[in-house]
Design brief:
Rossmann fold, seven-stranded mixed β-sheet, 9 strands, globular, binds S-adenosylmethionine
Length: 248
């Protein structure tokens, strides 16, 4: 399972950096903005992908040890390019679902954007991330819930790939006790439905499915998607969830 997912992201990495990273920037800014004053200690970034969180973290915390973790070798390569020249930054290729015990109650912050929804057991993962915090440390996690919008390319894609009612999301904030869980929506614009589909299928979360099911499946899906999508420029306002908590 992890192997397919990692290979999907290996092949998607460069396209993801080019197409989605600029569009997802407001959510990354929101996640980093939740950190406030931190105790001393390293900052962990599980599921860092190409590490778009890094520049914003370095602006706020220039001398901290900052550690990104990602499953995909392709993503880790691009993340390391971004980190080049910053000796206090490192990127680990590995599974961020359960953190290495060395991070237990050792971190000033754990920041993660758009990784949690991909993990098979998100409740356990967020619990393990919370346990990495020092007292006063901050957890800031942004993820896509199963329903992000009533109408738009994400909901159309979901309907075509997984028709029927969405599975209820686990109550992740409840796992942590005193956490704040809120929606965070921003607009995203695509030149047209075709360019969105191309990026989503080949440079995004669907890449692993496209590899597993083949190009004929992608072509058929593209036709059904374009039949129902609007013509011309397409803007939507998907709502992610932001979970924040302070270490005890
Ligand atoms: C949508 S990207 C987000 C990357 C980045 N945080 C951003 O905001 O652009 C999700 C990333 O999660 C990584 N990922 C998925 N499952 C993982 C796991 N179990 N452990 C570590 N990384 C994982 C993928 O390889 C991918 O790079």
């Amino acid at each position: 399972m992890n192997e397919h997912l990692a290979r999907g992201w290996d092949e998607a990495a460069a396209g993801y950096e080019q197409y989605f990273v600029p569009r997802f920037r407001p959510w990354v800014e929101t996640a980093v903005a939740q950190l406030g004053d931190l105790p001393s200690g390293p900052i962990l970034v599980p599921c860092c992908g190409t590490f778009p969180e890094l520049d914003l973290l370095l602006e706020r915390f220039p001398d901290r040890e900052i550690v990104g973790i990602d499953l995909s070798a392709g993503m880790v390569r691009l993340a390391r390019e971004r980190a080049a020249g910053h000796d206090q930054v490192s990127v680990v290729e590995g599974d961020a679902a359960t953190l290495d015990p060395r991070w237990l109650r050792a971190c000033s912050a754990v920041v993660s954007v758009f990784g949690l929804q991909q993990l098979p057991a998100p409740e356990q993962a967020i619990d393990s991330w919370y346990d990495a915090l020092l007292p006063g440390g901050r957890l800031s996690v942004v993820y896509w819930p199963s329903v992000t919008e009533a109408d738009g390319p994400f909901s159309l894609m979901r309907e075509l790939l997984r028709p029927g009612p969405a599975d209820p999301d686990p109550d992740l904030a409840a796992v942590l006790g005193e956490a704040v869980d809120e929606p965070v929506a921003f607009p995203i614009t695509y030149a047209d439905a075709g360019s969105f589909f191309e990026a989503y299928a080949h440079s995004g979360p669907m890449r692993a499915t496209a590899i597993a099911r083949g190009e004929a499946f992608v072509e058929e899906l593209r036709e059904r998607f374009l039949e129902r999508a609007p013509e011309g420029e397409w803007t939507h306002h998907p709502a992610a969830r932001l979970i924040t908590a302070t270490g005890r």
